[in-house]
Specification:
The chain is α/β, with parallel strands linked by helices. About 40% of the residues lie in helices and about 15% in strands. The protein contains eight helices and six strands; from the N terminus they run E-H-H-E-H-E-H-H-H-H-E-H-E-E. Strands 3-2-4-1-5-6 form a six-stranded mixed β-sheet. The longest helix is centred in the N-terminal third of the chain and has 18 residues. The two termini are about 25 Å apart.
Length: about 200
């Protein structure tokens, strides 16, 4: 597969307390659970197995606490330096941050039908939040600045947007990409898009 961007290893942060509570985190934060910490350590073992001999890979992270904690636990076996980049932050959910899905539906009932019929666009309708175009611009700017292969610690929605831009997918095809925590999404000319997990 051809891409104008370098090889990527994209990692979503480990499970957090708000993931368990099903709260929209956005730019807010909550700590990793014990499972989330273990997911990060497991990914560190995998990274060491596949990248320990390489000298051409840089590591980047969203500056948000859950991503940084995941990065620090994962990179510990490698001892690599880590560069924080705000373009890797999660989508800003504006007024919805910290709320559960049921609280959002109660507060904005007119958007409930959209959530069922068009879940992609619903994510970008929060008052004061970011649009899909905002995320595309952030992802494109970050990818354009890469000088070589990279390990990237980020968030659920931004992970999908980054991978979609690397693969040349539109926002609707992006929904077919796999998600999840404790998984490394590897994008390369040789393998295309694949998942690596314990």
């Amino acid at each position: 597969m051809h891409s104008r961007y370098p090889e990527l290893f994209v990692i979503r942060h480990g499970q957090t307390e708000w993931n368990l509570a099903r709260r929209h985190q956005g730019r807010l934060d909550s700590p990793l659970t014990e499972l989330g910490c273990q997911q990060a350590r497991d990914m560190g073992v995998i990274l060491q197995q596949i990248l320990a001999e390489r000298q051409d890979v840089q590591a980047f992270s969203s500056p948000q606490g859950r991503a940084l904690q995941t990065a620090e636990l994962s990179l510990k076996p490698l001892g690599w330096p880590l560069t924080q980049d705000a373009r890797l932050c999660e989508v800003a959910f504006g007024a919805w941050e910290g709320l559960t899905q049921s609280q959002i539906h109660a507060g904005w009932p007119q958007l409930s039908v959209i959530a069922e019929n068009d879940p992609l666009n619903w994510h970008f309708m929060s008052p004061g939040g970011e649009t899909y175009l905002d995320l595309e611009r952030r992802a494109d700017a970050f990818l354009a600045d890469l000088s070589g292969p990279a390990v990237i610690f980020t968030h659920g929605i931004l992970s999908r947007v980054l991978r979609a831009r690397w693969l040349g997918l539109n926002e609707h095809d992006m929904l077919d990409l796999p998600g999840g925590q404790g998984i490394i999404f590897h994008l390369s000319a040789r393998h295309g898009h694949r998942t690596i997990e314990k």
